[in-house]
Write a structure and sequence with these properties.
This protein is mainly α. It has a single domain, classed as Globin-like. It has seven helices and two strands. Strand 1 and strand 2 form a beta hairpin. Helix 2 packs across helix 4, helix 5 packs across helix 7 and helix 6 runs antiparallel to helix 7. The longest helix is centred in the C-terminal third of the chain and has 33 residues. The N terminus is likely disordered.
Length: 189
């Protein structure tokens, strides 16, 4: 059966079960996130190793919180965000902001904190992609699987940006910007 346009056949009409595509996408997402949750400890190990290799572990160990514990909490939040396709929530954002304040109180430069987060995020994403691809390669819908990986990638970048913004905001609450000139008193000569 084709589409009749000005009495010419212009192609075939494809009948796709549209209602099943979102359901299949959510099922595939749940399967990928479930696999990642089962392997969360190896995800945290990969993130920790990357931060340690970069020599930035001490920045995330403020407040006597071990690096692996802090990154496990971050992995839990990321997996929850992926599970529910949601943004970070108020309590999560405030926890990140508190970390920024704590690091700011140590006197460490902000760029090192953000670099530590970037190293952890990149290692976590690379590990997550490996695990996700193992699941989606078995999918009978490769386009749907590719779309899921793309969605998770976008969500990861958005999540990382929000985390870095909150870290910087918290850091800025305790460390004044450098190089800012105070207004000069015009009454002095």
């Amino acid at each position: 059966m084709g589409i009749d346009v000005d009495e010419r056949m212009m192609g075939r009409v494809l009948h796709l079960p549209i209602s099943s595509v979102p359901g299949e996408g959510m099922a595939l997402r749940a399967e990928v996130v479930g696999a990642l949750q089962e392997r969360r400890s190896s995800l945290v190990d990969a993130m920790s190793a990357a931060v340690r290799r970069a020599g930035l572990a001490s920045l995330l160990e403020v407040g006597d919180v071990a690096l692996e514990r802090r990154l496990d909490g971050a992995a839990r939040v990321a997996l929850s965000v992926w599970t529910h396709s949601r943004p970070l929530e108020g309590a999560e954002l405030e926890a990140v902001r508190r970390l920024g304040r704590a690091v700011g109180c140590t006197g460490a430069p902000l760029w090192r904190l953000l670099s530590a987060v970037q190293h952890a995020t990149r290692a976590g994403w690379e590990h997550a992609v490996e695990q996700a691809l193992a699941v989606v390669e078995e999918s009978c819908r490769p386009r749907l699987a590719a779309r899921l990986v793309a969605e998770l990638s976008l969500e990861t970048m958005e999540l990382a940006g929000r985390v870095q913004a909150q870290l910087a905001a918290g850091y800025g609450e305790v460390v004044p910007p450098r190089g800012r000139m105070e207004p000069q008193d015009s009454t002095r000569g």
